[in-house]
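EI: anyone free to look at a 116-residue chain?
SC: sure, send it
EI:
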Amino acid sequence: ACAAVLRWLVASGADVNFPDEQGCTVLDSGVWMSVPRPLLQTLIEHGAVARGANPHGDTLLHTAVKSAVNGGERGLVDQLIGMGGDCNIVNEAGHSPFMLALLAGASDLVSTLLAA
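SC: here you go
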């Protein structure tokens, strides 16, 4: 049902890259909230920009790691790495996705990011 609503919104002219008041797009928010991967894929198929950074310098991979260490879906990290997510880009705080996983003690994510 959500995918159908999303397709309808896009067909009606909704801008999937329009930032909210904090400068985050629906894709940023979707990754943070661990929405189902098919919905994220639908956003990307309709032009959502999967590369770049939010106003804090966080890429989608930063956001996925932050979400995963807080109970979100860890599979998004793998998906974003598969899409070319860079594990070494640092945000405004000077942290890469790898460093965020390391600081959180998420050894499985550290291993995933090291292997990327």
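EI: The chain has a mean pLDDT of 89.
SC: 👍
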